[in-house]
Amino acid sequence: MARKKEAPTRGYGLTAWSRAVLAVVDRPEDTRRVGKARSYFRERKILDVRLRPGQVSALVQGSQVEPFETSLTMRTVEADTVVALLREKGATDDLLAVARGEQPRILGSVVLPTEPADVRGDCNCPDDEPRCIHVLALAYEMAAQIDKTPSVALTMMGAEVATLLAHLRDDGPDDTARPVPPRAPEPVDFFGARLTLPPLPSPPSVDVFADLDVAGLNRALRMSGVGPLDVGEVTDELAELYAQLTRTDRAN
Questions:
Q1: Mean pLDDT for all residues in the chain
Q2: What is the span of the domain harbouring residue 229?
Q3: Which of 12, 15, 32, 80 has the fewest CB neighbours in a 10 Å radius?
Q4: Which is more confident, 220 or 75?
């Protein structure tokens, strides 16, 4: 007869971030509750886990027929504060690291809870203890999820990776970095010795119409479609235009 294959033993608290969360929730001195909560975790009695920024809730199947409604509510961190601290410590790359499944130390020190007051447990079971069996079981379940997916810890603390990256992008470059003013372009020295160019020549004024081949101009105008009666008018307009150009050039 084939032996029934046993399910692998579940573990939690295998990484630094999950141990940091457990440090403010777990009650190792309460061996009875801890032992029972570990059994619930191993037997997968934490059902319908729902995670949203700042809170995780679940149904924990206990000793009664109906499961107990259990939740962990975190004292959340502000995304802009987290980004500012990461900038100050030169650790903004930690956000990309946690997106790759890593647990960077500096980001953890900024976000993770540090004292029991940072995490509140709630349960509708008859136990009046704030860290009842069901709350502990849910904490173990979340620790196991953090071991596999570190970003879960950030969501629990109200600082999702996507939100932090958005703040990092919207804040722009580090405020402590002062913009460097653009440098004035260097003058181009084509001659290689920074020589002073001589002034432009001033040619004598020339009346171009005195040397103009009027007959040739008339032929060109007629060939371009100007009527015989309009040739004289066009010539006068050309003379007036040239005079204006000459006056403008002398004024400059």
A1: 81
A2: 208-251
A3: 32
A4: 75
Q: What is the DSSP letter of 202?
A: -
**Is 114 found in the same domain as 26?**
yes
SS3 154: helix
pLDDT of residue 15: 93
Same domain, 78 and 131: yes
Over the stretch 53-106, which tens digit does the pLDDT of each residue have? 999 999 999 888 899 999 999 999 999 999 999 999 999 999 889 988 999 999
Number of domains in the chain: 2
**Which tokens go with 145?**
């999820």
Backbone angles phi, psi at 109, to 5 degrees: -65, -25
Q: Cβ(77)–Cβ(157) under 8 Å?
A: yes
* Beta pairing class for 119-123 and 55-60: unpaired
Residue 63 DSSP symbol: S
- Phi-psi domain of 90 (left: phi exceeds 0; alpha: psi -120 through 50; beta: other): left
| Angle between helical axes of 133-148 and 31-42 (0-180°, round to 10) | 50
Sign of CA dihedral 15, 16, 17, 21: positive
